[in-house]
Amino acid sequence: MTLNDLLHNLDSILPLAVLVAWSCILLIVDLFIPKGRKGWTALLAAVGLIVSLGLTILRVGKPTASFDGMVINDDFSSFLIILFLSSGLAGIVLAYDYLKRMNIEKGEYYTLLLFSVSGMLLMSMANDLIVVFLALELLSIPLYVLAGFARPQVESEEASLKYFLMGAFAGGFVVFGIALVFGATGTTNLTAIFASIGASIANIPILVMGAALILVGFGFKVAAVPFHMWTPDVYHGSPSAVTAFMSVGAKAAGFAALLRIFVSAFPALSTDLTMVLWAVSALTMFLGNVVAIAQKNIKRMLAYSSIAHAGYILMALVPYGNSTVSSDTISAALFYLVAYALTSFGAWAVVIALEKAEGKGLELDDYAGLSRKYPLLAACMAVFMLSFTGVPPTLGFMGKFYLFRTVIEGGYLGLALIGVFTSLISAYYYLRVIVIMYMRDGEPEARREFWVQFTAALTAVLVVLLTLFAQPLLSLASQAVMLTY
Amino acid sequence: MNLVLHPLILTTFLPLVGILVILFLKPEWKNAIRWVALLTSTATFAISVVMLTYFQVGNPDIQMEINTPWFNFANWTIYFHLGVDGLSILLVVLTTLLTPLSILSTWTAIEDRVKEFMIFFLLLEVGMVGVFVSLDLFLFYIFWEFTLIPMYFIIGMWGGPRRMYAALKFFLYTMAGSVLMLLAILWLGINQGTFSVTELIARGGIPANIQFWLFIAFGAAFAIKVPMWPLHSWLPDAHVEAPTAGSVILAGVLLKLGTYGFVRFNLSMFPNAAVKLAPWVAGLAVIGILYGAAVSYAQKDAKKLVAYSSVSHLGFVMLGLFALNAQGIQGGILQMVNHGLSTGALFLVVGMIYERRHTREMDAFGGLWKVMPIYGALTMIVTLSSMGLPGLNGFVGEFTILLGAFGSAYISPWFAGIAAAGVILAAIYLLFMFQKLFLGQLDKEDNKLLKDINWREIVTLVPLLILFFWIGLYPKFFFNIMAPAVDKLVTIIQTASVIP
Description:
The complex is a heterodimer. Chain A is mainly alpha-helical. Chain A has helices at 3-12, 14-29, 39-59, 75-101, 108-125, 129-147, 154-185, 190-198, 204-222, 230-237, 240-265, 270-293, 298-317, 326-354, 370-373, 375-389, 395-409, 413-439, 450-468, 471-479; strands at 64-66, 71-73. Chain A has a two-stranded antiparallel ribbon. In chain A, strand 1 and strand 2 form a beta hairpin. The model of chain A has no long low-confidence stretch (mean pLDDT 90). By secondary structure, chain B is mainly alpha-helical. Chain B has 21 helices and two strands. Chain B has helices at residues 7-23, 30-54, 89-105, 114-133, 137-146, 148-158, 163-192, 197-203, 208-225, 234-241, 244-269, 271-297, 302-321, 326-357, 368-371, 373-387, 393-406, 413-438, 445-448, 455-473, 476-498; strands spanning 63-73, 76-84. In chain B, strand 1 and strand 2 (76-84) form a beta hairpin. Chain B starts with 6 loop residues before the first helix and ends with a helix. The A-B interface holds A 327-328, 331, 371-372, 375, 386, 391-393, 397, 401-402, 404-405, 408-409, 413, 416-417, 420-421, 423-424, 427-428, 431-432, 434-435, 438-440, 469-471, 474-475, 478 and B 70-74, 113, 116, 138, 141-142, 145-146, 148-149, 152-153, 156-157, 163-164, 167-168, 171-172, 175-176, 179-180, 182-183, 186-187, 189-190.
């Protein structure tokens, strides 16, 4: 590889390269920032994300492949990269006051976050199973540490250990799956895998097993049933700002990998895999929503809700092998991810505003009377709950509309029926939050921290406005096609 | 016509201006908030009346149409498509009329969180008018589901003791039907490639067996909203717990969204299935008429009585619509308006006494006429209108419906025969209520000091009373407005019925 090639390759992954370099430098710079002034680290980390964001936006619409086709930079990845970088920003903004208040303010938080975001960026561009695995580890390991950031609190340590063990376990599945796929096709490059299936030189039974194991591994990451067990405990135990970032970023990265791998390498296997996806999606929607009803702690409730939403997104993946709807599969999933991300960050911002030290202020009953004392926060939370339920005019509704459309077009009316009925079940527990906030009296205490309130208000406005003026986001999602070559 | 100053846009979205103003008022300025809400909704009513003057009587088609692309959705285009015709315009005016009257009725009844109340109330108006005027299925669904949110808050925040249960039940019941409709809408979008109601109607040609399922899916949403027996059980809870203004709008307009849905979508888009299912729907309607009347008679709480009477009255509407002939449908539409006026007025009347005594048990009253003569006289007219006395509005509606049902080629005349008994039953339970409240001895101490209704309350009722007489004595004005559109609809149904 000549220097020229190297520069060309680096250029095509510039946002990622900048972010990784920035994180490494920030790790050192942070050492010189005195304790109690870690706001500077937060600011610098945010600047890094924004620079990377700017570079990404400049490159939209210019797809390139680099590193011998191992990394692809296309509109699909750009869309997700923008989502990941924004999630990183939200993770910083939500943590800024929260860490101080919880007495766990350390500069490492921001660097770890940047490393995790870098992993997500790489994940969305990975066109080779080895790169997928590297990205998976790069995004996960900082998250394991972040989950335990509130040590020596037992819940946080438990969350960290549990997440690590489960994550390692899932990583094992992915590696084993990759090995089988390599054995069946002789390559780990997604494009080459597709070609080898087309040329019928692949060993299909082993390939299907490999694909299924990869699905299992990412099933853990996106918290799909039956691989969801870790989610409630980890979401509950981790510091809320971490949970917010994790519940959006890690899930979206998992889906980025699933979409890229399945749509670009395994469309031919859909006859075998679609039924599995169907069942996993249906179970996930059902279990997530039903168990959420029983939750009394808002963090656990949101954890189960995030499981349910993984099920909805998986629904889009079910007809992925049907070439007439496969482009809708991608854009519906991406659109829903944005809807889910905005709604989640908003909801977590409200949770953070009400959380007190030692895990207090997290019971649903602590929200009683919120609408009288903090009308703005309560109104935002009501919007998020309605959006999670999928009631218009919110982004959650648009997302579900697109998902259901894709599924019905793909010929799975039954799954769409399960989808709408589980949404109905979900209305029960989401509305209960509104009932408690608006229709019961209580003495809630919330922080009036600027950044938290700002996040809640901004996401609430976006959730409604992006529905009424849906064209830009819809166009972006539908143009976010994958580069195939 | 200019898009912003278009009468339909103004009628639909003007309340938003009021909301914007209210948002900037302090919660303590309760009277200012009330006045802003009242003036905005009155202005909306005035504009809707202006719109009525633009309306060309005799034109069966959609008028004052606005049709502009809203957004693209893969290969679908969603249109911002509004318009009115003879089927919907009266309901629009009914909505804009009942809203200011309801707001007026809350003047002293709602003291807590007035700001939020008025915001939700005006939002509700936007949603309701939006449902009646939207002609794109996607847009329609947005408005349809949106009406749930403010009503949910109105019941849940300002309702009676069991308000949380009632609000949740209301939301879940209605949403259960709506999600089925959503799937049907998606099916239409995928297989017909358009969401335009007018185009779907004009094109026709949906296979009969599929029409059946689409009819069921749309019908489920509408039947719950109407509510048709046996899907009515959310209604008494919602009504009893809702504040007076909420009940007026719930009975007056929200229930009409269901019956309107049947006319606009089920009858016109799936005429084949409508013809096949007409006897079943009519059967449920007749059961509803008798059941609602019987249960009303058994009530001790005046508001519950009125609530169950809605089940009975809307049974009439459904019977008329599914007679599937011009008389039946015209009667059905007129009866929608009538029920909105009469039952709205009944809820107002019950609310007035509740505000004074904080009870609605009919046994707690008696002989009220002696202390509240004006109130008594007005209540009597309202009661007579609701039970269908000739010369008042209810009679015209019910008579036309029965006439249509007797002459229908699609349902047996027996349905009309049995339904006629409902008219008598209505007289029994309504007079029974009137008697318990106003006649007899004034023997309860609490009642002796009651003050008669004041000017504000009279003003709330008078517009409704005028309309009772207007519709009762000169219904031709109203029939003329809807007749061409109904005839067009009947032609569609007749054409469909000859196809096996």
